[in-house]
Write a structure and sequence with these properties.
Alpha-Beta Plaits; 26% helix; alpha+beta; four-stranded antiparallel β-sheet; 38% strand; globular; 91 residues
């Protein structure tokens, strides 16, 4: 079994302030830990002034630690790992 076979993708959703630099600060947390972002979608949320970011990252159990670190960022309103939930995934 290769190293890639052991790593499970995690789907992370973050609700953030719609300000310049927020995406960079969040992505930097993943980069610092050496995670690869497989997919990224960003768009306005249903609330004015907030954006929703959806990340799919190659991660192991350390993903929870990065989610906790990102949650501490000032511009992050809410973040959660929805990998265990039943979801419909589309590209």
């Amino acid at each position: 079994m290769s190293q890639r076979d052991k790593i499970q993708p995690h789907t992370i959703i973050a609700l953030v302030e719609d300000r310049p630099g927020v995406l960079n600060r969040i992505v930097s947390k993943w980069r610092q830990r050496g995670f690869n972002i497989e997919s990224l979608a960003v768009g306005h949320s249903e609330t004015a002034g907030l954006s929703r970011m959806t990340f799919v990252v190659d991660a192991n159990t350390d993903a929870e630690q990065v989610v906790k670190q990102v949650d501490k960022l000032v511009d992050v309103v809410n973040i959660r790992d929805i990998s265990a939930e039943e979801i419909v995934s589309r590209e």
